[in-house]
């Protein structure tokens, strides 16, 4: 099967469940208002692409290359980013819904999560060194054996993480975030 390579093209309001995206590589492309829900994006390559107001709920990304990808106002619940190709894996999320997504064992240093919902998101054994969670709701997000060094949590809320099982050297927290660090000790912070 021949694969395509597309550069600098815009895709608007397409439903890829009905008409699957052609297998291949996409560079500097913009996807606006597209529906990728439950689509199979496995073995595809996306470089320097922007996804704006797209629905990527439960899409499959086995061995998918995501290099320098910008997600803005996207829905990504249930996406397993750990199945992506780890080489060059890099992205940012602004005003996105990432409920129950998984970043298990990924290396995603310096990732920016801004104004996003991350309910139940799995960051187990994830390397988030130098990342930023700017005004994000991290309720029920899982941080276990994660590398959180130099991560900025100062404006985020509803997180709970155990400093004894996560590496948090030089991570930044606000006073409002202290309950999320101390919840396992069953103490009250006022």
Explain what you see.
The protein has 190 residues and is mainly β. It folds into two domains: 1-96, E3 ubiquitin-protein ligase SopA (Pectate Lyase C-like), CATH 2.160.20; 98-185, E3 ubiquitin-protein ligase SopA (Pectate Lyase C-like), CATH 2.160.20. Helices cover 3% and strands 19% of the residues. The chain has one helix and eleven strands, in the order E-E-E-E-E-E-E-E-E-E-E-H. The strands form two sheets. A seven-stranded parallel sheet has the order 2-4-6-8-9-10-11, with no helix packed on it. The protein has a four-stranded parallel sheet with strand order 1-3-5-7, with no helix packed on it. It is elongated and about 55 Å long. The mean pLDDT is 92.
Might you state the CATH topology name of the largest domain? Pectate Lyase C-like
What CATH first level of the largest domain would be assigned? Mainly Beta
Give the strand tally: 11
Give a quick account of the main beta sheet: strands, pairing sense, barrel closure.
7 strands, parallel
- Order of the strands making up the biggest sheet: 2-4-6-8-9-10-11
Mean pLDDT: 92
Q: How large is the radius of gyration?
A: 17 Å
The proportion of residues forming helix, as a percent range, comes to under 10%
Structural class designation: mainly beta
**Strand residue content:** 15-25%
- What count of helical segments does DSSP give? 1
Distance from first to last alpha carbon: 62 Å
